[in-house]
Design goal:
- The relative contact order is 0.09.
- The chain folds into two domains: about 140 residues, Immunoglobulin-like (Sandwich), CATH 2.60.40; about 130 residues, Four Helix Bundle (Hemerythrin (Met), subunit A) (Up-down Bundle), CATH 1.20.120.
- A five-stranded antiparallel sheet has the order 1-3-7-6-5, with helices on one face. The protein has a three-stranded mixed sheet with strand order 2-11-8, with no helix packed on it.
- It is rod-shaped and about 155 Å long.
- It has seven helices and eleven strands.
- With about 350 residues, it is α+β, with helices and mostly antiparallel strands.
- The longest helix is centred in the middle third of the chain and has 30 residues.
């Protein structure tokens, strides 16, 4: 209600001020102009007011609302200067008259000829007397934004219809997208709630001599000799014997020949007696004869090889618990009967 009453109150005050307007004092000139005078609907129009006054005069510009009759007020510059006014040249003598400029930017949303109404002004002279005056009216012509060719407006086009097949494809694509998002959410949820993997402690390492003893039992349980696999038996027996010697006497047996293993035993000082060394030498020689000389030993020699292996294993078990003795150097005659390449 307040917005609607402002134009009515301003018009009433304007009519009252025009009725009580005084005569224009000497030396006072009031001008008003529109730029542009011809405009289209909605274009901003500048209404410039310019007053020539004696230097002692003061001007009180009226307060204007958002609507002034048919004009929509966009901006108001009450003066005494406007933004784009040209400054007076410097060095000129002081004139007895001064210029007072004000501006109102308005717009019209109707077509036709209109008149910007006079605005009431109050001038106060040097003696303090006030003079009620008004600005001259300004005529403005508003044209339509439509040209002569565009006077007939075209009807709106019919709404485009989406074919049923296209609609089903859109619904199917939407359903697949939702399913993909649901699967992704479920996967992330399952991944977040998955229990951490439990790392089991590593199993304790088995004693090398115990492991070799177990391998020897498994080899005898296969009964390879009874089934005719003599060479396979002695190859496995040789590997088991090397593991026993490496664990019992602390020597390196991997990729070592029998001669190199015996030299390590003689120089290491870990053999307890001459008998133990002879058992080791006999076992290694028997294995080499079968592996490299294609020798097929009779039954008693097979039993002797197994017996020697068991005796060496028992000695090595005790050897780890006793300090090393003085090295024994024994040269066996069997070294001369070793196959070539050993």
């Amino acid at each position: 209600m307040k917005v609607c009453l402002v134009p009515l109150v301003f018009c009433a005050l304007l009519a009252a001020s025009l009725a009580a307007q005084d005569e224009v004092p000497p030396g006072v000139r009031i001008r008003a102009a529109a730029d542009p005078q011809k405009a289209t609907v909605g274009d901003p129009i500048r209404i410039d007011f310019e007053l020539d006054l004696p230097r002692e005069y003061q001007v009180r510009f009226p307060s204007v609302g958002n609507q002034l009759r048919d004009f929509a007020v966009l901006e108001v510059y009450p003066g005494p200067k406007v933004p784009d006014a040209r400054p007076e040249p410097s060095g000129t003598k002081a004139q007895p008259e001064v210029k007072y400029r004000a501006r109102i930017v308005a717009a019209l949303y109707k077509v036709g000829e209109f008149e910007f109404p006079p605005l009431p002004l109050v001038l106060r002279d040097a003696g303090g007397k006030e003079h009620a005056l008004s600005t001259p009216a300004v005529k403005i012509q508003i044209q339509s934004v439509l040209t002569d060719k565009d006077q007939d407006l075209k009807d709106l086009k019919n709404q485009a219809e989406i074919h049923e097949a296209v609609r089903w494809i859109l619904w199917l694509a939407l359903a697949l997208l939702l399913a993909l998002l649901a699967a992704l959410a479920w996967w992330r949820w399952q991944r977040g709630r998955r229990a951490p993997e439990l790392r089991l402690p590593a199993p304790p390492q088995m004693d090398p001599l115990s492991l070799a003893e177990a391998e020897l039992r498994d080899l005898l349980a296969l009964r390879l000799i009874e089934n005719g696999f003599v060479k396979q038996f002695y190859v496995s027996l040789s590997e088991i014997a090397k593991k026993i010697l490496e664990a019992g006497y602390g020597i390196q047996t991997v990729e070592k020949t029998s001669r190199e293993i015996l030299e390590s035993l003689r120089n290491g000082g870990r053999v307890a007696s001459t008998e133990n060394l002879r058992h080791i030498e006999d076992l290694l020689l028997a294995c080499d004869l079968v592996k490299f000389a294609k020798y097929v030993p009779p039954g008693p020699e097979n039993e002797a090889a197994v017996k020697n292996t068991v005796q060496i294993l028992e000695v090595c078990k005790k050897q780890r618990e006793t300090p090393p003795s003085v090295p024994v150097a024994i040269k066996s005659a069997s070294q001369t009967a070793r196959p070539e390449g050993l």
